[in-house]
Write a structure and sequence with these properties.
This protein is mainly alpha-helical. Helix content is about 75%, strand content about 0%. The protein has 6 helices and no strands. Helix 4 runs antiparallel to helix 6. The longest helix is centred in the C-terminal third of the chain and has 24 residues.
Amino acid sequence: MDRHSNFYHINRCFILFAAASISLKGLLQPEYFALLLQDTGLVSSMISKPISGLFSLLIAVFIVGYITTKISLIPVIASIVTYLMVIGLALFQGLNIDCDCYQQSSIESIVYTNITAQFFVILVITVVTTSAVFFEKRQ
């Protein structure tokens, strides 16, 4: 018999869906996260796309590992927090410029027009679900 509430399971599913969406976006369009890594100066342009793909693959491995109960939820949450730190660094450096400097369908335009909203949505999801999961564990 499972002693956890339905709210606990919904929160875990919510954080897994958030991580899965980040992973899927990174696997299908690695150039978006690679652009963030490159423009923030974290990695060079030569290795930004492979690092982006490996990061997304690592998130997927953590999700599958959690689902098969081989690992805990901590690596999944840590990978989301790492993703948030990269977006937060881009925001801190002022890369979310709304000056219409980029072409309408360029990668820069797609990435930087929604970066602020994306940061706050993922931040709220992570804080609320993580605190609820860890609060439920303590009881």
